[in-house]
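Standup notes
- DV: blocked on the single-chain target, sequence here:
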Amino acid sequence: MLIFSFFYLIYSKITIPHKRIVYIEQGQTVNEIVKTLKNENIIKSHYLFKVLLKLTGNDKKIQYGEYSFQGNTSKLDILKKLINGNYYYRKLTIPECSSSKEILDIVNNNIFLIGNISKVPSEGTVFPDTYFFQRNDDKNIIISRMQRKMDKVVASIWRYDNDLLQSQEDLINLASLIEAEAMDYNEKYIISSVFYNRIKKGMKLQSDPTILYYKNLKSKIKTRKIFKKDLLSDNPWNTYTRKGLPFTAICSPGIQALDAAMNPRETSFIYFVADGSGGHRFSDNYKEHLANIKLWKDKLR
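- DV (later): unblocked, structure below
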């Protein structure tokens, strides 16, 4: 009878219909931990669970951290999760073409991360992706992971046989322009070819996102409006007044934009303009470009 009761204690199931997140804080006593589990309806009896901990010799082996519970689970399953440290991981997503400023906001606004960011990441050094972390992880560690991911991805794409890009920084720089200009996968490679063709011809890149980047660099309210004076106002990011790539990247490019920057499609295009439907029209002469601009304006009307 005693053996039967013991096995019932260990293997009897409880149904947890919805996901419940439980945080076991460092320094909590067994009584406090068991009480937390009981309050969150993870266990029915805190007394029986304490007996189980004592009988199995695991009353001092519980790992502090955050845990997720859902579905049919036994006391033994719960116990194994707590002593093995099968933690619940939260996630944080950095969208493609986020600026360094926007990335800092995303990280700083996450209430489950701790610490103060000691160094602002340089523009374009953080890889846009979804990252998993544990509650109370340090913000600096998360950002370091993001930067290591960018280094790894760029290193896997980079080739030394490119005549126009002198460094991996140039690759990120160009990729950031491509990311800011195009959403469509295939268009990224065509826009890359436009930039390559313009550089080869000694033309300015004339990329509107570089103008917006400088305008929004110190502005509290983000704008997408560009005026003629903005195009004429010289600064290190103005690709209308200066030839070549801007002073730095203007955002964090994703893997497609990076690949497009390294491997442009072969075209004769030197112009492109929005088509009003999320894509672009491309041309290899100014007359056709002007006609495409008219089509875009007509579409806006």
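- Follow-up: The chain is about 45% helix and 15% strand.
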